[in-house]
Amino acid sequence: MRVALPHDLGREEVRRRLRERSHEIADHVPGGMAEVETRWRGEDVMELSVGAMGQNINGEVEVEDNQVIFSIELPAMLSFVKPMIESAIRSKGTKMLEKK
């Protein structure tokens, strides 16, 4: 699953905001019991692993000039929650990029 979020911040600013706020990702996972790990693979790709309700979801966030692309590997057994995850990425991802 891929979700693109447009921005007009420039790559450096997006990277800064993601680094400063990546710890907030767990707050946006329904159920409140998520473990989130992030790691930067190069300047423009943040890998993430989310563990919740006995499932692990892996993905990455790629920073481009005018958009941020969230790519999530969703297990087949969780395909029914795809619309909910996509909606959460759109709303919460946009908030993560906003100025505090």
Automatic annotation (TrEMBL):
Stated name of the protein: Putative polyhydroxyalkanoic acid system protein (PHA_gran_rgn)
Listed Pfam families: PHA_gran_rgn
Protein species of origin: Altererythrobacter xiamenensis
